[in-house]
């Protein structure tokens, strides 16, 4: 639950008490804080953050919903409550929103770029998220128009290179997971060559992830699957080194999904600020 995570982040920033707020006698003053955009961005995690802050006893309005475009001067959040709590949470709230907005904004740019050449392609997120921020980051990616992919290891079966290395054989690893899978869980497997992708398709996996292939190698793989008559029954995903500069080239290969960690690792630069004013009553 995000409310619990916010309290944990607050303990990191304020392990005992806020010396400045205490010295100024502002702990019990009623106040209103507004988070204001200072740059153009895509809103993200505002609804989740508002729910969490309400659990902590604050009165919160979220004028900008996740996925909405935000312009400079727009109010993103309006929060009312004890000034001491608002001042303590200020940096945590801004840090979280700036990162989430940055992820959503970068995602929107990459989705738009990919869909200009392949309108039906999905742009999906990897699991390369900072610890503790998985839910917010995945929601931010979705707010930008992306697909969340797996939220965690319990969502689906994805056989990767290290699984194969430990089993000792590519085909045997696939046969094991196909025998054990639930009807609720899809099975995807990494493939580093066109031949591995063909093997996976013939064995009956739901999706194949073409790992660190060049666009030409991706096209070659798709042509092989088409020649063998198995392309239509498998989802093909390209992953590894996907950036704003090359995502269009990968999307144009004919894959169903392009997955990337770029927006998570390099979010767009977003500027937000928090302004406060004293109230007569909370």
From TrEMBL:
Residues covered by the Quinolinate phosphoribosyl transferase N-terminal domain: 18-99
Domain named Quinolinate phosphoribosyl transferase C-terminal: residues: 103-275
Catalytic activity field: nicotinate beta-D-ribonucleotide + CO2 + diphosphate = quinolinate + 5-phospho-alpha-D-ribose 1-diphosphate + 2 H(+)
GO molecular function terms noted in the UniProt entry: nicotinate-nucleotide diphosphorylase (carboxylating) activity
CDD domains: QPRTase_NadC (cd01568)
Cellular component annotations (GO), alphabetically ordered: cytoplasm
EC number: 2.4.2.19
Keywords: Glycosyltransferase, Pyridine nucleotide biosynthesis, Transferase
Keyword Glycosyltransferase annotated: yes
Record pathway: Cofactor biosynthesis; NAD(+) biosynthesis; nicotinate D-ribonucleotide from quinolinate: step 1/1
GO biological process entries: NAD+ biosynthetic process; quinolinate catabolic process
Family, per entry: Belongs to the NadC/ModD family.
Subunit structure: Hexamer formed by 3 homodimers.
Family annotation (NCBIfam families): nadC
Function: Involved in the catabolism of quinolinic acid (QA).
Protein name per UniProt: Nicotinate-nucleotide pyrophosphorylase [carboxylating]
Species name: Pyrodictium delaneyi
Lineage: Archaea, Thermoproteota, Thermoprotei, Desulfurococcales, Pyrodictiaceae
